[in-house]
Amino acid sequence: MSSMHDSLVNAIEKAKSLSKKRNFTQSIELIVVLRNIDMRKPENRITLNVYLPNPIDKPVKVCVIGEGDFALKAKEAGADLVLTRADIERYGSDKKAAKKLAKEYDVFVARADLMPLVGRYLGPILGPRGKMPLPVPPNADLSTVIKRARSLVRIRTRTQPLIQCRIGTENMSSEKIAENAMAVLSAIERKIKSSQNIGAIYVKTTMGPTVKV
Fold first, then answer.
1. Long-range contacts of 137-143 (CB under 8 A, 24+ apart)
2. What are the Cα distances from residue 20, in Å, to 6, 27, 113, 175, 203?
3. CA atoms of 129 and 126, how far apart (whole Å)
4. Do 62-149 and 2-57+151-212 have the same topology in CATH?
5. Using one digit for the tens of pLDDT, what is the confidence trace for 20-51?
6. Quick count: other Cβ atoms within 10 Å of Cβ 41?
7. Beta carbons of 149 and 36 less than 8 angstroms apart
8. Which residues pair with 197 in a beta bridge?
């Protein structure tokens, strides 16, 4: 594992050096190419939530769905937006607003008993975007939940044997980005049950060339 970590650090350093300076902070992305997996079969598609050990230096907007005391605690815990049952029903009848909501917020968290309602009204919008809420119990420690949500990356494959996700920004240390990459790779290996199915690994900045690990 340490040799993989070192290879990742070297590749990330190279990706940073090859990337032209932009007038915004670029993300560092990890690309994993899978092999010998038939993505046309639904059971082979991958959907994973991975909590990164090192938070990404870009704001992750968290929307919490709940009622009463749960909603108050979510506001106190620093949620970027808190929605109630009535709000969810309203979004259900306004697709344009629901799409804007899905685009604006990165992670959704919902009180577990409201998940059926969310599924009914927002499922068609959030589901295809891989943003279905993380269900949490009514007595959850919301400050911890929200803090973890800000370090969450969602990994999804569709019909292509390819995974691409953000693991850092160019101003983070390459070691910390590599640790995040390792967390993602470990989660993928556990899911596909074999590192032999990982064909190639690349890193890149948002606008820069890909670098093979």
1. 137/111, 137/112, 138/70, 138/111, 138/112, 138/113, 142/64, 142/70, 142/73, 142/74, 142/76, 142/77, 142/79, 142/109, 143/76, 143/77, 143/78
2. 24, 13, 48, 21, 15
3. 5
4. no
5. 888 888 999 999 999 988 888 888 888 888 99
6. 8
7. no
8. none
Q: Where are the domains of the chain?
A: 2-57+151-212, 62-149
Strand partners, 172: none
Domain 62-149 has what CATH class?
alpha beta
Helix (H, G, I), strand (E, B) or coil at 164: strand
Asked if 206 and 56 touch (Cβ cutoff 8 Å), the reply is no
Q: Bridge-partner residues for 154, per DSSP?
A: 49
Query: Tens digits of per-residue pLDDT, 158-213?
Result: 788 899 999 999 999 999 999 999 999 999 998 887 778 899 999 999 999 999 99
For tokens 């909501």, the residue is 101
Was domain 2-57+151-212 assigned CATH 3.30.190.20? yes
HSE, CB side, 13 Å, CA atoms: give it for residue 78: 12
